[in-house]
Amino acid sequence: WTYAAEMETKSSTPRATVNDGSVKPALEASMTPKDSAIRRVALVVIAAVLFGVSIALKDGVEKASEYFAGYLLEQSLSVDNLFVFILVFKYFKVPLEYQNRVLSYGIAGAVIFRAVLIILGVATIQSFEAVNLFFAAILLFSSYKLFAGDEEESDLSDNFIVKTCQKFIPVTDYYDGDRFLINQDGIWKATPLLLTLVVIELSDIAFAVDSIPAIFGVTRDPLIILSSNIFAISGLRSLYVLISESMSELEYLQPAVGIVLGFIGAKMIFDFCGYHIPTEASLAVVTTCLSGGVILSLRKASSEERDK
Asked: Does 50 reside within a domain?
C-alpha cells in the first residue's frame, strides 16, 4: 500500500508536454520571457564576476580593479544604448517576436566590430601616446552633451543613419516572417527587418566612439578591454527584455554616465601629464556614480508611483 501511494504521489506531479514528446516540470514550462531573461542576465553577471575574481587571483587586485571598473563602465553605456534600440524598433514597427533575432545578430556584429576597434586602438596608443588627449576630448565632449539638456531624438524620420540606409538599401514595405531578404518579382530586396538590423549596427558603431575611448581611460590591457566589452554586450539582449518598458524610470542614469565620462576624460589628461590616479579610486568613482544614479532613479519612480 505504501509503495502504491508513493507512486500515485509521484505521478500526480504536474508535467508539461513539449513538441519533441519529452516532458518537463510545469514550473519550467510555464516560465515567462521575463523570468528567462532574469536567469540569463544573472548567469552573465555571475560569469563576469567570476572572471574578475580569476584575474585577481592570477594578476592581482589592481588588474581586477581595472577589469571591474571597465565592465561597469561598458555595462552602463550599453544600457544607455538600449534607449536607441527601443526607438528603432518602434519606428520600424518591428513585431515583438522578431526583435530577439535582430538583437542577436546586432550583438554578434557589435562584438566583432569592437574587437577590431580595440586592437587598432591599442596599437595606436602604443605608437602615439598623444592619442590619449584626443580620446579625452571625445569623452569630455560626450559628458558635456549628456548634461546639455538636449532631448533624445524620438522621431527617427530625419535621422541621418536611417535616411542613409533607406536611400541605399531597396526595402519592401512589409515584413515576411523573420526573413531579412526576399525575392520579389525576380529582384532580391531587404525586408524592414534587415533595415532595422543595419540601423542598429551603425548606431552601435556611433556609440563605440564613446565607449572605446572610455575603457582606454581605465586600462590599456587588451584582454581586460576585450573581456569587459564582451561581458557587457553578451547580456544586452536579455537586459532589453527586462528594462525596455521601464527605461524612462532610469532618469538619473544618463547624468551619472556623464559624470563618469567626464571623470575618465580628466583622468586621461592627468595621466598624460604624469599624474596617475589609482585604479582603485577610478573603480570607486565609477561604482558610486552609476549605482547612485540607478538608486536615485528607482527611488524617484517609486515615490511618484505612491503619489498616484
From this structure: yes
Find the domain containing 262 and state its range.
Answer: 35-302
More confident residue, 191 or 308: 191
Cβ density class 106-119: b for 16+ within 10 Å, e for less: bbebbeeebeebbe
Residue 15 belongs to some domain of the structure: no
8 domain residue, yes or no:
no
> How many folded domains does the chain comprise?
1
Separation CA 219–CA 118 (nearest Å): 12
Element of type H or E holding 181: strand 181-184
**Closest of 134, 118, 288 to residue 220, by C-alpha:** 118
Hey, is 104 helix, strand or coil?
helix
Q: Are 255 and 133 in contact (CB under 8 A)?
A: no
Q: Give the tens place of pLDDT for each residue, 239-248.
A: 777 776 666 6
258 domain-assigned: yes
Let me know if 162 is exposed, middle or buried by CB neighbors in 10 A (0-12, 13-18, 19+). buried
Count the neighbouring beta carbons within 10 Å of the beta carbon of residue 269: 18
Tell whether pTM > 0.70: yes
Beta bridge partners of 171: 190
Q: Is the dihedral of CA 152, 106, 175, 37 positive or negative?
A: negative
Give every CB contact of residue 20 below 8 A, 6+ residues apart in sequence: none
